[in-house]
Predict the structure.
Amino acid sequence: MKMKPVVVEARDLERTYRRDSVSVPAVRGVSLSVREGDYIAVLGLSGSGKSTLLNLLGGIDLPTAGSVHLLGQDTRRLSDRDLTRTRLEHVGFVFQRFHLLPALSAQENVELPMAELGAGRRERTARARELLEYVGLAQRIEHRPGELSGGEMQRVAIARALANRPALVLADEPTGELDVHTGGEIAQLFRKLNADGTTLVVVTHDPALAQPPAAVWEMRDGTIRPRSGE
Amino acid sequence: MIIILTALVALASVGDAQDSPLPELLLEARTARTLSLDPGDTVWVASLGSAERRFVVAGTYRRPADPSTVTLRDYRAILHIPDLQDLLGARDRVDRFSVSLRPGADRNAVMAEIDRLAFGAEAHASEEVADAASETFRVVSRFHRALAGITISGSAVFLLCLVVLKIEERRLEGAAMREIGISRRTLFLWTFTETLAMAAIGTAAGLAIGWAGSGVINAYFRHVYDTTLAFARVTPELALIVAAIGTLTGVVIGVFTGWQMVRSTPLRLREP
Amino acid sequence: MSSALSLAWRTLVRRPRRLALFVAGVMVAAATLIDMVMLSEGLQQSLAGILESTGYQVRATPRGLLPFESASGIPHSLALAEAFRADPRVEEAQPIWGVTVYVSSGAHAGPDRGRPLATFGLGVPAGAAPILRIREGRPAQPGEVLLNPALAEALEAQTGDTIWLGLAPDPATGGTRRRRVMRVVGIAQFVFSAEGAFNLAAPLEDLWSMAGASLQPAALILVRIAGDADAYDVARDFRARTMNADIYAIPELIEAAGDRLTYFKQLSLVLGTVSLAVAFLLVATLMTLSVNERWSEIAALRAIGVTRRRMLIQVAWSGLIIVGAGTISGLGVGLIVARYLDSILTRFPGLPLEVSFFVLRPGDAGLAVALLMATGLVGGLYPAWRAANVNIAGALRESI
């Protein structure tokens, strides 16, 4: 069977922070390949380096050593402008605390990355409505974040992440702010996304997000390995 | 009784005094300095359209520090009245009389008598003259008070902005304090005291800047106008007024902002 | 650009009360700045307006004196006026004199037990009306006078009436010597007249003959320049050859007046600078706090691909919106406050009625607006720079 193309690849990844002249290694020697259509769930305790890894994979942060090749490009060799453009066009982010713009409606929040990319108004509106319908919020498109529940806000954030048809969606504890039931619904939505062809990397505590078809990896003290049995 | 006649005369330096006795005049120090004249020198003096006459400089004087004439850059000399009348061809003419009354004399009766007898002259009490001369300064004073009003409103809005920002910054902190059982009263006092302290520090800093500024202003204008007058002064009374206004502003805004902090429920405070 | 502006606007209006408060703060600063800009050159411009409105470009006054400061004036003024007229660069020259006169009318009972009213009499060439604004009637010919409204009211006189005009007060009779009857031919306002002052205008020759002023003095000679001739040149040439008069082009006088108004200029400079500093602090504080509040939101926007430039523009727009709204409202408030302050300052004793201390020139208003907008931009610069350079990973980590 033909191998699917690699979307993002980490090699011998190191990320060390300096705090008050003390070096704190957050990610140590991580190597990982994510191919088109993969669904990777990274589990680990708080402080294990999951979010740092996600930031490195998405080009939000740069490695201290090793490399990240995002769609074949070494993130360390890209200028901030090119890295920003790469994120806009090819990576979708879902955050634990949603980070929607409170001044904008659900539809406008979803339109934001498309507007940044220069899409026309009609195209943006149609795509935003389509995505909101896809995540089950067809009736809430005019509502602002303050008028939505946590689960609804996360659905809007997922729709926003999909806006520019990204090659990769990265989610950092997407159910961290939600109750078990709502978290389960979001996990269901992620499985649907993957089934429809979206490449996903999710870092989480939530076992619901680590259900098949997710390939589960575990992080501990900055290192990563596949969960036994995977 | 003092009789005063003023006129514009032209002065020209001619040199040392001659043997024959000449009428004398006094030169204001600035006039003497400009013409390079010293006591004992002689000068030509003329009025517009009159013949020139020679005078000898008897001495120099400094104009008393008078706010109403401080911006005037004219040159002055004092002549004996008959000499000045001769120069002007206006014998028996004066601009004004100053009249001293005997103890016990009825001033109003004297003024009425002068008005009745001397048509063309108006008698005024010294206080009225001083009062009329002070009108300019009363206008300036009113203007400064109006500017102070504008400045105070501006400062109050500025202080309000700062405090509102601080409160918004502390909404979550405030909510947390309420949730762990800190009373509204404590929270109110906390906000109120902070606002008052901000107003007090601002007032003190403003007074210090004002005091330093008045020194700079006085030095500058004394140099510009060659005078000993004080142009700006931070008096104890003024400092008290400023402190009172600053404190009052702090109290009013402190109450307002303290109330803003405690009137909401912790849940409302947590709302984005 | 437009989406950055729209986003900035919508972010600001999310907190309408805070926005209103900050706009009010900038408004006070803007109003003060506008007022100070108006005040800095207002009196000078106002005087210039009065001087220029007379339609004369050169002015001669007795050497060392302001016009009408003394009854002694430029001697032989007709000869000097004739010398001006003989110059091909000069179109017209009008001598004007001023002297205290005493006026009474038949109807006038007077506040002063019926005694003649002391009035400032303006001698102007017969049939001419320089520095007068005639409200009704026509210029005075020999034997005729124009009264200012205050005097006409005090005398209860109107056009067509006759009045008694005297010059030398006579203590013995309580009246005046050298009296003559004059006919009122109109009502006119003297452009340099103070509020409530009594003035009349009569032909020069009438006043000279009544005063026995054989030297034909003038307190002022106004000169109108012909065509493209240069007023500075005319003034300089005549100044060089005239001993008894100071002769200057009107712009030179305006400049000299400006030198004497140091107080207003200094005050304007100090308060104007303070206003700008307050506007700067307000914008910088609000923008800094707003950026701090939105720190994780800004990081998220950067994470999803919003460029640094776009972030910078968005925050800068926020500052400009606040300053723009504050400036527009401040212009209106500033004009109202200027009117109030002007009503205080124009009570200076002896000030001409038409003088104003606050004059708004389009250029000055433009300067004030530009200064405020620049201040808003500079005030928002540091917060905008911080927003653009947010450490995305760090800010997102801190937000959890």
Q: What stands out?
A: The longest strand of chain A covers residues 6-19. Helices of chain A lie at 50-57, 80-90, 106-117, 121-134, 150-162, 180-195. Residues 6-99+166-226 of chain A form a domain with the Rossmann fold fold (CATH 3.40.50.300).
